[in-house]
Amino acid sequence: MRMAPVMFRSACRILTFVNTQSSANLQRVSQLVPRALLKQACAPSSSGQLSLKACARELMPEQSRGADSALYTPPAGVRGMTSLDREAFSWTVSVPALRIPKEVLNKLAAAAGPGLRFLPSSFSGAEAEALQKAGVPLEVQNYELRMTYENLKSEEVLRAVLPEGQDVTSGFSRVGHIAHMNLREHQLPYKNLIGQVIMDKTPGITCVVNKTNTIDSTYRNFQMEVLAGDGNMVAKVRENGVTYEFDFSRVYWNPRLSTEHERVVELLRPGDTVLDVFAGVGPFAVPAARRGCSVLANDLNPESHRWLLHNCKLNKVDGKVRAFNMDGRAFIRGPLREALPALLRGAAGVHVVMNLPALALEFLDAFRGLLDPGLSQDVGGLPRVHCYGFSKQDDPHRDVVDRASASLGAPLEGRCSVHLVRNVAPNKEMMCVSFALPKEVLFSNHSAETDSPEEPPTKKQKSDDTAD
Ligand SMILES: C[S@@+](CC[C@H](N)C(=O)[O-])C[C@H]1O[C@@H](n2cnc3c(N)ncnc32)[C@H](O)[C@@H]1O
Predict the structure, then answer these.
(1) How far, in Å, is the centroid of ligand 1 from the Cα of 335?
(2) N or C: which terminal CB in the chain sees fewer CB atoms within 10 Å?
(3) Does the beta carbon of 363 sit less than 6 angstroms from any atom of ligand 1?
(4) Is 89's C-beta closer than 6 angstroms to any atom of ligand 1?
(5) Ligand 1 test: best mutation among 278, 300, 430, most atoms within 8 Å of CB?
(6) Given its phi and psi angles, is residue 118 left (phi above 0), alpha (psi -120 to 50 degrees) or beta?
């Protein structure tokens, strides 16, 4: 980006200003300010004031903003505000300035060169020469710069409003047009104002929600409260080049899993089959089908199932995906078991994906004795399982391998790979164990059904302060 050689200096408090009363002048300014900024400068009005402020904002070096806190500190009266009054964020700062006639702006720009700065009391020889040549009097004047809500970043607004000394972190996850926040206790009295500020300051965000409980529903969706905006929960997102649509209030979606989705999909080859036990709205299933795989995808949540079907159509892979709406264990012992013998006789790969990290390791016992031992001779390759699990242990690798082995009833040590997906919370990791389903498990005489005739009920998910 090209910066103006004559620029606002907050640390030394000098402001260069131009008379921008006409669009012709704005054009001249455009040669001095970054292109993106000109749009902003021209948008509000053709008045010089607005243009000037827009320029001041952008030309201020980031590191100087802290050094000149007065310029970005709104009136003290906004402290404690709970309903956003944007007008209350207006104030005037007196700043030293150099007046530069509009006619010489271009000349000055050329003479000054990109690195030149004009300092108030100590113009260097080159600086003074450039200014004098251009007929600019070396007189520093006072300029009353009017600042408004528009000039502030969301953090600056919130720091001015929330109680002094308290954390104003205003981070959020973005899901399409929805900003998804996880506000702390002390921020709750200001929640609607925070939502409004996030919406004002983030292009494309038209709805702000706050998580109202821990993620403890079976379907892994959040309970949420709308803080600001239109309340439209049907989001459209793109992940790894694929478009998904879903009702964010009723299904699971986590933008932090895009790398993991991509990692697994890249393991697949065209012609492989993917058996997705906890498919959600399709972030493994849809890209796998787009890659030329056949997919059986299941989810217990009827809403996820509905949006999964929708996303298959949206991405024109409905012919490659068969979708099911049942418990994961029933899926493994039903459609997956039916499909497996024929698949294992073929040469293509078979991948089982199990992304329900709070519980998936416990579902692995459903593979015990899944197939008739008489079929074991016909088998070429074995299905490759990618099973997710959370761990809070000091050695999460070992922990998930031990739990997977216990659930399968066969040791995996030395015949699996373990991938750290992400750190979910302090001392809580999300892991993925990948392994070829051992023959002695798949063709065991003891099935999970014969070992325990009653199917274990789906356990209530453990509460956690995290988004999984
Ligand atoms: C963590 S999400 C993962 C969704 C998707 N695979 C992804 O990567 O985003 C787990 C999914 O499992 C579903 N689920 C929860 N319990 C289930 C069960 N017992 N059987 C099948 N699906 C279940 C939830 O509805 C949710 O969509």
Answers:
(1) 17
(2) N
(3) no
(4) no
(5) 278
(6) beta
Class of domain 156-232: alpha beta
Alpha carbon distance 144, 21 (integer Å):
17
pLDDT tens for 338-350 read 999 999 999 999 9
CA atoms within 13 A on the CB side of 39: 2
Answer yes or no: is the C-beta of 123 below 6 A from any ligand 1 atom.
no
**What residue spans define the domains of the chain?**
15-152, 156-232, 254-451
Task: Tell me, in angstroms, the distance from the centre of ligand 1 to residue 297's CA.
Answer: 11
Contact (Cβ atoms closer than 8 angstroms) between residue 431 and residue 397: yes
156-232 shares its CATH topology with 254-451: no
Q: Measured between alpha carbons, how far is 265 from 364 in angstroms, rounded to an integer?
A: 21
Query: Complex ipTM, two decimals?
Result: 1.00
SS3 361: helix
What's the gap in Å between 354 CA and the centre of ligand 1?
A: 8
Residue 363: what pLDDT?
A: 98
SS3 131: helix
CA of 251 to the centre of ligand 1 (A): 9
* Residue 281 pLDDT level (bands cut at 50, 70, 90): very high
Confidence of residue 19 (pLDDT cuts 50, 70, 90): very low
**How far is the CA of 213 from the CAs of 44, 183, 184, 245, 429, in angstroms?**
41, 11, 12, 24, 21
Please compute the mean of the pLDDT values over residues 405-429 and round it to a whole number: 97
Q: Which of ligand 1's atoms lies nearest the C-alpha of 359?
A: 16
CATH superfamily of the 254-451 domain: Vaccinia Virus protein VP39 (3.40.50.150)
For residue 222 and ligand 1, the question of a CB distance below 6 A is answered with: no
Residue 234 CA to ligand 1 center (angstroms) comes to 19
From the annotation, which residues make up the binding site for S-adenosyl-L-methionine?
261, 299-300, 327-328, 355
> pLDDT tens digits, residue range 64-97?
455 455 667 889 999 999 999 999 999 887 766 6
Q: Which residue has the tokens 């994961």?
A: 328
Instruction: Give whole-number Cα distances, 285 to 84, 131, 337, 468, in Å.
Output: 43, 64, 18, 19
**Given a cut of 50, is residue 143 above it in pLDDT?**
yes
Report whether residue 308 contacts ligand 1, using a CB cutoff of 6 Å. no
For residue 458, list its beta bridge partners: none
E strand or H helix at 258, and its extent? helix 258-265
What does the alpha-carbon distance between residue 425 and residue 462 come to, in Å, rounded to a whole number?
14
- Ligand 1 centroid to 358 CA: how many Å? 10
